[in-house]
Amino acid sequence: MSSRWSPRTMSRRVHERLDRSEIIYLVAPSGHPNYGDEVIARAWLRHLARARPHATVVLDCHSPGQAALLLRSTHPRLVVTDTLWQLSIFADEADPPPDPAIPPWEWVSQAATRLGIAPRLSEGVGMLAEASSLHLLGGGYLNRLWPHHVSLATAVAAVSKATGAPAHATGQGLLPVFDRPRFDAFLTAADEFAVFDVRDSGSRDAIADVSGLRDSGDDAWLAVGIGDGGPIATPDTPVQTDSETVILCVQSDLTESFTVGGTTGPDALALRVRELLDHWEVPGTAVAVVEGIPGEDARVPGLLADRLEGSTFLSFHDVWRKGLPAGNGSTWISSRFHPHLIAAAAGDSGVALVASTDYYATKHRSLVEAGSAWSVLGADGALPSRPDAGGFAPADRARAIAAKHVVAEELYPTRTPRQAIVDRAAAHAIDREAAALRPGTVD
Hints:
The chain is of the alpha/beta class. It contains 16 helices and 15 strands. Strand 14 (349-353), helix 14 and strand 15 form a beta-alpha-beta unit.
């Protein structure tokens, strides 16, 4: 059967071929799994599935096996690897170091831009050289808590400088900043980025002189309100919540500095949660436990087993597949940052329990500054009454979503700068195809 090709059909076919040559290289801490990190990666992949369905999208992360499973079907041309993460971890942990004459982040930058330095990863290094753009997805992983992660930023900057592919970073939380000399190396690298977007005022101030600085908030805002399987619960969520329910999402990691009544860490967090539940006179049967990191977020509730008798439990698996039980008027107690963001964006009231003052305090306060009505509670201070002020006002929520979408459109517009450059060539190609097809049919 023959059919006529219209100019629009031919244009689409030519641009699809052009798009297939594009390699979008993403770097993220995906696959642990961690609810916030996975939501951010999924949001960007879904955005790219709409904006760049024919491009090859590479996700470079520390746990590619689990990430590939968690994020399957999010983009039709997704490739998952761990090239930069392997290089960064090896350079920091190897004994002796791969090159004692230079800092580990300089070795990673060299290995990411020159074939042969890390020969086992040559296929991945080759992919970096072919990337059309490089993008550090958002999160709180570029800071002093994980000093070897500075190599991710320096390597991306080095690849960008070597190949001319633009480097981007979005939604970054940089506090507490790297110690020197890592912070100096980080600043030098950040200044090579075409866009370096942060999520809080402290991070903005820390890199105030970086030329590509933006401040659009956390990347999870890209996942809010998109209407195609975002992070909010579906109707068949295993646990149904309402205004009587208190939802707990309390971590056990990164809690070493949290101290209450002579106890520290998870024991201290358990004591603080017990005090809140008693203060609010909430029975265990009215509590739902949500897991943001598998295992880690079951430990504190386990220490409260007697107080939480009759409660219900949503594993990470449940939350990832069905969504957070947000938007039903429940009250939250969350030390995790992204459940705070998602639940407050859905209008729920809550208390943000600050597990560490040098890391989580900045994160939760950034949401309050953006309009969240949640209370923020540390290891000390008076216990608040059960909150009923809701989360983000509609205007604040809309503003945060819009700010993140502006950055997403800047990075991946409907018509990319590359496409604009080749539009004339594409038009000539279309003309040639049209001439070859005259009188206008093809078998």
